[in-house]
């Protein structure tokens, strides 16, 4: 089969499509013939050696796919050959086939297309876990989302609205803000032509924000850390801006808010039952039209470098997808 292979930690331009052996379904596993693969910011960090996980070489990046089960291993009874599924694979997604534990696949409703299904899991599930388990956001609270036009930011806007929050979208351009508004944002802040801290103060009438979904880092994080409401929750999701900020802990003491880490990959392993329940709720919201996947572009495997660069440079409106 064809796959995008990483032989060393290096710039994404070093990735190449190669012929590799087809995967085999071992005990408790299934092989999925991939229809589409989601492209995520951590994928770009991973191949450069900048992510928490450091796989052995060579490896195939890609953590979420949609497709059809082509074989099942010993002991697999709850899914079958020919079934459309979403698969969480952690690695191996930038390929034509992938072998995954049968516990990591979800039946895919016919109403959801391959491309949207492949882009649904990581971004939306991260936002869902962050707002539900980590922030425990309540109807009527304010939610501020940074990077609100990117894959996980846009998902947080949608899910925040579905959970009854008033959503403040923070983006770098009016074009991105327009997309956030189309997906449910109530208040729009362009931080390139406004002082972010001042704009947040005005938007919340001086109260501050109840929950911040922060995935940019750097100066954006610092402005948010000074704009929290009493009993607020500042969610640390990622650092798409490239700078991991240092946090002055006295702010949490004086303002009485919590700084809460969000690592969805670890959540799926530590709380598998909660993860499964989240996915059922998320798929239900999708079918009800409360959430949706915005696919910016679908590219072939040979253009994985272009897809990753677009994500890493924060030029994406929604999600990027690869089509084997």
From TrEMBL:
Domain Enoyl reductase (ER): 10-322
UniProt xrefs under PROSITE patterns: QOR_ZETA_CRYSTAL (PS01162)
Gene3D superfamilies: Medium-chain alcohol dehydrogenases, catalytic domain, NAD(P)-binding Rossmann-like Domain
Pfam families per record: ADH_N (PF08240), ADH_zinc_N (PF00107)
InterPro entries given in the database record: ADH-like_C (IPR013149), ADH-like_N (IPR013154), ER (IPR020843), GroES-like_sf (IPR011032), NAD(P)-bd_dom_sf (IPR036291), Quin_OxRdtase/zeta-crystal_CS (IPR002364), Zn-ADH-like_protein (IPR051397)
Protein name in UniProt: NADPH:quinone oxidoreductase family protein
Lineage of producing organism: Bacteria, Pseudomonadati, Pseudomonadota, Gammaproteobacteria, Alteromonadales
């Amino acid at each position: 089969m064809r796959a995008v292979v990483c032989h060393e930690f290096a710039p994404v331009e070093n990735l190449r499509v190669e012929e590799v052996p087809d995967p085999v379904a071992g005990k408790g596993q299934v092989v999925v013939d991939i229809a589409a693969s989601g492209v995520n910011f951590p994928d770009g960090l991973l191949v450069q050696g900048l992510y928490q996980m450091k796989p052995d070489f060579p490896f195939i990046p890609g953590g979420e796919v949609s497709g059809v089960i082509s074989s099942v291993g010993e002991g697999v009874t709850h899914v079958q050959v020919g079934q459309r599924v979403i698969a969480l694979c952690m690695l191996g997604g930038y390929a034509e086939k992938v072998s995954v534990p049968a516990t990591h696949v979800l039946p895919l409703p016919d109403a959801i297309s391959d491309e949207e299904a492949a882009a649904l899991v990581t971004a939306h599930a991260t936002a869902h876990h962050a707002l539900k388990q980590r922030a425990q956001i309540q109807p009527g609270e304010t939610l501020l989302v940074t990077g609100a036009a990117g894959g996980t930011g846009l998902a947080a806007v949608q899910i925040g609205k579905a959970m009854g929050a008033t959503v403040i979208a923070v983006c770098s351009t009016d074009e991105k803000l327009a997309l956030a508004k189309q997906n449910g944002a109530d208040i729009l802040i362009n931080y390139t032509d406004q002082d972010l801290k001042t704009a947040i103060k005005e938007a919340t009438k001086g109260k501050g924000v109840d929950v911040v979904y922060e995935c940019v880092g750097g100066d954006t994080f610092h402005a948010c850390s000074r704009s929290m409401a009493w009993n607020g929750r500042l969610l640390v999701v990622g650092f798409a801006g490239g700078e991991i900020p240092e946090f002055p802990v006295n702010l949490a003491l004086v303002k009485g808010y919590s700084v809460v880490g969000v690592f969805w990959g670890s959540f799926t392993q530590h709380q598998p039952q909660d993860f499964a329940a989240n996915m059922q709720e998320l798929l239900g919201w999708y079918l009800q039209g409360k959430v949706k996947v915005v696919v910016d572009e679908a590219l072939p495997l040979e253009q994985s470098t272009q897809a990753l660069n677009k994500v890493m440079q924060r030029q994406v409106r929604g999600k990027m997808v690869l089509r084997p």
